[in-house]
Amino acid sequence: MAIALSTLVQEADRFLNAARIADYCPNGLQVEGRPQVRRIVSGVTASQALLDAAVEAEADVVLVHHGYFWKGEDARVTGMKRRRLQTLLGHDISLLAYHLPLDLHPEVGNNVQLARQLEITVEGPLDPENPKVVGLLGSLAEPMTARDFARRVQEVLGREPLLVEGTGMVRRIGWCTGGGQGYIDDAIAAGVDLFLTGEASEQTFHSARENGLSFIAAGHHATERYGVQALGDYLARRFAIEHLFIDCPNPV
């Protein structure tokens, strides 16, 4: 079965409430391909490796979290950018990308989906007074040590996380997938036992250590694999089309 590209895009935009979320890039259809869609290939980032895999899989649409045309980037179509766009346009494949709308969504969002993977009960936003803070706040069913929770993260995500061990047991957790290390101060203010994100900055270690907070950096790519899969599955069910998630390994 096939669905019109325009119908697919309209539903994804509506479902994610994309038009109402300010972002650093255009959300939705970034490159237009053939007008009918039978197969979606999803992945975290629209890298050349993912595009080549999508061509091999005979995809009509590539659906990603990290697309193109970021604010402040060089607008010239040269080098890597030229090759990527040439692959999409040469094979008539559309690129559909959602950044913050996919982080924030309460059903298929990266943060909610990561919580399900790690068995964290979502309680609400990390900072209810500041909607610009993308992270969430939640809890574990039973307290555990930071090392035991880090082992759970490693088992689920398939990579060893960076752990800064705090002073106590872990039950209340704040988290933000991807590059959310800047929200550690919000996590401290929320009184969590552990803050989890994808990346770490030099000062993150000192903030965690001096506040007695446990901190885990589990990988930008690794923490953001699940939202785009959930969105792809939703669209596939909604329109009775095919969806294939392709994970292109990234250690960062």
* Structural Rg: 19 Å
Placed side by side, the strands forming the largest sheet appear as 7-8-10-11-12-9
CATH class membership of the largest domain: Alpha Beta
The secondary structure category is: alpha/beta
Are there runs of 5+ residues with pLDDT below 50, and where?
Answer: none
Q: Which CATH architecture of the largest domain is right?
A: 3-Layer(aba) Sandwich
Q: What would you give as the CATH superfamily of the largest domain?
A: NIF3 (NGG1p interacting factor 3)-like
Overall 3D geometry? elongated
N-to-C CA distance: 37 Å
Count of domains: 2
Number of strands: 13
Mean pLDDT: 97
Q: Could you give a short account of the major beta sheet?
A: 6 strands, mixed
Which series of helices and strands comes N to C?
Answer: EHEEEHEHEHHEEHEEHEHEHHE
- Report the sheet-strand fraction: 15-25%
Description:
There is one protein chain. The protein is an alpha/beta fold. The protein has two domains: 3-98 and 224-245, Udp-n-acetylmuramoylalanyl-d-glutamate--2,6- Diaminopimelate Ligase, Chain: A, domain 1; 104-222, NIF3 (NGG1p interacting factor 3)-like (Udp-n-acetylmuramoylalanyl-d-glutamate--2,6- Diaminopimelate Ligase, Chain: A, domain 1), CATH 3.40.1390.30. It contains ten helices and 13 strands. It has a six-stranded mixed beta sheet with strand order 7-8-10-11-12-9, with helices on both faces. Strand 10, helix 7 (184-190) and strand 11 (194-197) form a beta-alpha-beta unit. Helix 2 packs parallel to helix 3 and helix 5 (110-118) crosses helix 10. The mean pLDDT is 97.
